[in-house]
Amino acid sequence: MAVNAPVLFTQGNLNNDIGVPLTLLSLNEQHRYAVIEMGANHAGEIAYTSMYAQADVVIITNAGAAHIEGFGSLEGVAKAKGEIIETLKNDGIAVINHDDGYFDYWKSVAGNRRVLTFGLNDSADVTAKAIKTEIRNNVFVTSFELVTAQGKVDIILKLAGRHNVVNALAATAASLALGIDLKQIKQGLESVKPVTGRLQPLVSRLGNIIIDDTYNANSASLKAGLDVLSNFKGKPWLVLGAFGELGPDSPKMHEEMGALIKASGVVRKILYEPLAKERLFLKNNKI
After folding, report:
1. Which of 118, 130, 162, 188 counts the most CB atoms within 10 A of its CB?
2. Is 21 left (phi over 0), alpha (psi -120 to 50) or beta?
């Protein structure tokens, strides 16, 4: 969108009941678009902030385990995310992840509103083919074919992983909903830069690669990181701490993540918090 016109967008983590109003206060007549992130750690927060935003297009990327403690369950997370659709104008457009297990629920919440879908599912309105992640000039690059009803175009994304391709598909669907053409979408996607601490490769003089993903951690980011590792040869190591805000299911979820690590082919694990050692090692002795 920024390729097309001035855009106001959320800075840092200003995505809660304080951050969203602060962001909206920066909106002025020069902005043609506003991209506002809606965060939450409890039910009702997105409904509250969405009333201020009065969006024309809303996006639901997925339902993950981040902050699940405040929602009680993954279903609680999904319902909280659905609040953004409940507050959408009747003539608004809901952009929804077709791959997510709660897709049917969110689509039902949309009712008669227009829905655009994205995802790696062939049934999605916006999808991707031939995805490949590699390192070029010490930076991650993911190439793919962007497939839409308006046509196909090859994209080179300066980000790692299939999950970032899905994020690019979400941005594409929202842009198409606003009438932005594929040429501008390609230019915008290929200008995106990685966030500090999110899957950033550090390449040594000997050719060893350290991937910095220390910005934050939850089960989704762990799965995404392991997926990126699977693109490369060698014997990967993993340095990991415990995951917070998972609620009463935390021990079980840590064990599940331990099994995921086991299946990933990681040859050495360095767990630097006692909680991580207890839940990932002792309670999952197959790791």
Report:
1. 118
2. alpha
